[in-house]
Design brief:
The chain has one domain (about 30-150). Helices cover about 75% and strands about 0% of the residues. It contains eight helices and no strands. The chain has helices spanning about 15-30, 30-50, 55-60, 65-70, 75-90, 95-115, 120-150, 155-159. Helix 2 packs antiparallel against helix 7 and helix 5 (about 75-90) packs parallel to helix 7 (about 120-150). The two termini are about 30 Å apart.
Length: about 160
């Protein structure tokens, strides 16, 4: 007899009950609530940077075009490399350490970002650090949540 993982709905649940089971997962799982809160915070930091960076870059002394400002998103690609490193650390049981280090890095990233008006190098360093941190926390969140409920992937992503 196959046993259902705790919190996993039966395969034939109606759509409304399936959505409700997502709420049930949140109510029952402190890990899911914690990781959702961390996800909210890291993506708030990410959005704060990218929604505000156009202003200082379009003004003196930089006077960058919209295309050049948009190209700064490519600098963040370096941060995608953190996903594989974070994944390996998580696989070795270092999720808590990875999260702590990434959150410290996220906080530290705002130091060079504060100097964006005067230095494009400061912006580049800040963007790389922020993106590394966001990627590391995001991968760690996914790793821990999906390990807890491997059969609830779409509900966890929806939540």
């Amino acid at each position: 007899m196959l046993r259902r993982h705790a919190g996993a709905p039966p395969a034939a649940l109606p759509y409304g009950r399936l959505l409700g089971s997502t709420v049930t997962l949140f109510a029952r799982e402190p890990l899911l609530r914690l990781r959702a809160a961390l996800g909210l915070l890291i993506f708030t930091a990410f959005s704060t940077l990218w929604s505000s960076v156009a202003l200082p870059l379009s003004e003196a002394p930089h006077n960058l075009s919209h295309t050049a400002i948009g190209a700064w998103g490519l600098v963040g690609v370096v941060g995608a490399l953190a996903a594989t490193v974070a994944g390996r650390l998580n696989d070795r049981g270092h999720a808590r350490w990875t999260t702590g280090a990434a959150l410290a890095l996220l906080a530290a990233s705002w130091i060079p970002l504060a100097h964006t008006r005067g230095s494009l190098w400061a912006l580049a360093v800040g963007v790389v650090l922020l993106d590394l941190a966001v990627q590391a926390v995001h991968v760690t969140n996914q790793t821990l949540i999906h390990a807890r409920h491997p059969t609830a992937g779409s509900r966890l992503i929806g939540g």
